[in-house]
């Protein structure tokens, strides 16, 4: 669900419709808000696939991953990556 509304713009030639950003936070647009959050925090040995499947379709996946990397998020699936995958990404960046 988007935090944008439509605004009608009147011009001499035609009516146009343009999105208006209402200033909502990206976190509020995440698909994860529509499901039980436990799916993003699987127990050891459980699959991360269900969470990653949701992330793959989410419009704010990039923002989510960037925020998790900034916070060094230690648990769960964020932006489509598990904690192990985020640690590997950090190591790779540090080595570069």
Keywords for this entry:
single chain; alpha+beta; two-stranded antiparallel ribbon; 3 helices; globular; disordered N terminus; DNA-binding; transcription regulation; disulfide bond; transcription
Written overview of the protein:
Helices cover 33% and strands 15% of the residues. The longest helix has 13 residues. The N terminus is likely disordered. The chain has one domain. The protein is an alpha+beta fold and 96 residues long. It has a two-stranded antiparallel sheet with strand order 1-2.
Short description:
Helices cover 33% and strands 15% of the residues. With 96 residues, it is of the alpha+beta class.
Please specify the SSE layout and strand pairing:
Elements: E1 4-10, E2 15-21, H1 49-56, H2 61-71, H3 83-95
Antiparallel strand pairs: 1-2
Straight-line distance between termini: 38 Å
How much helix, percentage-wise, in residues? 25-40%
Determine the mean pLDDT: 83
**Percent of residues in beta strands?**
5-15%
Sequence of secondary-structure elements: EEHHH
Could you say which overall geometry the principal axes of the C-alpha atoms support?
globular
């Amino acid at each position: 669900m988007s935090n944008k509304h439509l605004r009608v713009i009147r011009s001499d030639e035609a009516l146009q419709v343009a999105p208006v950003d209402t200033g909502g936070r990206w976190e509020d647009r995440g698909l994860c808000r529509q499901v039980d959050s436990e799916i993003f925090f699987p127990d050891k040995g459980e699959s991360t696939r269900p969470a990653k499947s949701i992330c793959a379709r989410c419009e704010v996946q990039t923002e989510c991953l960037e925020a998790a990397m900034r916070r060094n998020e230690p648990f769960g699936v964020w932006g489509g990556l598990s904690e192990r995958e985020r640690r590997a990404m950090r190591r790779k960046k540090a080595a570069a």
